[in-house]
Design a protein that fits this description.
This protein has about 160 residues and is mostly beta strands. It has a domain at about 5-30 and about 45-95 and about 120-150: Immunoglobulin-like (Sandwich). Helices cover about 10% and strands about 50% of the residues. It contains 1 helix and 10 strands, in the order αββββββββββ. The strands form 2 sheets. Strands 1, 2, 5, 6, 7 and 10 form a 6-stranded mixed sheet that branches. Mean pLDDT is about 80; it is low at about 1-20.
Amino acid sequence: MKKSARIALVALLLASACGPESLTLSQAWKQDWAGGRQETGRGTNYTLLLVAGASSQEIQLGGLWVGQEHYDYNLRNRSGGGGQDFRPGDTLELVASRVERRDRNSGQSQVFTSETPMPPPREYSGAALLLYDAGGQTAALLVPAFDERPRENRP
């Protein structure tokens, strides 16, 4: 069984354990990148493709943790619409980034992941944890592992 198929199967089982199928993980990957100029920095993009289930109209996405770091993310509805406006069956693309830049004056490296750093709300095993509210109850989607994409060199 392919790694991505195992990830989707595990995520489907976890999501179904949280009640009606409201959000499932289709794919998860990470891609390192490096800028051609020092000011651009380097980093890693983490991408989750999620499929909205039958009860998805009651979902409100919450925090995302990769390892022990909290991440801000951008959400795009690949099926049309925008932001968190989606319907059952829509494919949602969630992208979070870890950016590392060197300060020009001090030469110190600074890492950016989130405007509001916070520890995960609970221990978990796997690569990432996404919390969401489904019909008034907090649910969790566990990402067991990220597939790795080839490094991208940017100008």
